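Recap from last week: sequence in, structure out.
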Amino acid sequence: MRIIEQIEKEQVSMINFAKQDVLSDPQAIKLRMADLHRSQTLGNLLQTKVRLTFRSIDEQVYEVHTTVWAVGSDFVVLKGGVTIPIRSILRVE
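Predicted structure tokens:
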């Protein structure tokens, strides 16, 4: 098991992401989208931060504690305009 590295949202733009989805289970993918939309609502209405756990192309796992401002079909936008591909997100807490 790899160690989860805590990073600041400003460091996300330096990470390379894989093209394939980190999740294979259709139910887990559906749950991830529901969690992302919930985090967007919390971020926009209450400025509530969430923890996003995601994987880079070299399979390192990172976690960022941030506000989700928008959820698109392929990317989430964090405060400050930083984006993470949804396919790379393992967990939303």
